[in-house]
Design goal:
This is DUF1493 family protein. By secondary structure, this protein is mainly α. The chain has one domain (2-113). 41% of the residues lie in helices and 0% in strands. Helix 2 (18-29) packs antiparallel against helix 3 (48-61) and helix 2 crosses helix 5. The chain is globular.
C-alpha cells in the first residue's frame, strides 16, 4: 500500500480519489478522456505500444493483480501481413478478432477493486 502511494506521489497523483487518479494517469500518457471513451476502439484509440507502457504504470501505481488481463483482447496482434500464421511462431501470429472496447470506466472500476475486472 505504501509503495503504491509513493508511486502516485512520484508521478504527480495525490490520492484525491481513485477516479481522479486514474483520469490523471490517462491524461499523463494520452489525453483527457471521458469515462465512456475507449482506449482500444473508436476514432481516437491509442497505439498498442503506448498502451503497453501505460498499463505497466497503471498496474504498478494501483497495485493491481493483472493475471486475468489479456492485452491482446483489447489490442490484437497485427502480425506480419504477408506471411500466413501457419508458418509463424505464436508470438508473431496475427489475431483474427476485433478489439474489445477498453473504457476509462473499466480502468476506474478495476483500480477500485484492486484487480482487473473483465467486463
Amino acid at each position: 500500500m505504501i509503495a503504491g502511494i509513493m508511486r502516485l506521489l512520484s508521478i504527480g497523483l495525490f490520492m484525491m480519489s481513485t477516479e481522479d487518479d486514474v483520469r490523471a494517469l490517462i491524461k499523463k500518457h494520452f489525453w483527457e478522456m471521458a469515462d465512456e471513451d475507449s482506449l482500444s476502439t473508436g476514432q481516437y484509440c491509442v497505439l498498442p505500444e503506448d498502451a503497453h507502457a501505460f498499463f505497466g504504470e497503471y498496474f504498478a501505481v494501483f497495485n493491481l493483480n493483472y493475471s486475468s488481463f489479456d492485452f491482446r483482447k483489447y489490442f490484437p496482434q497485427e502480425g506480419i501481413f504477408f506471411l500466413p500464421n501457419a508458418i509463424l511462431p505464436d508470438y508473431l501470429k496475427s489475431d483474427k478478432h476485433q478489439p474489445a472496447p477498453l473504457t476509462v470506466k473499466m480502468l476506474i472500476t478495476s483500480a477500485k477493486a484492486g484487480r482487473w475486472i473483465n467486463n
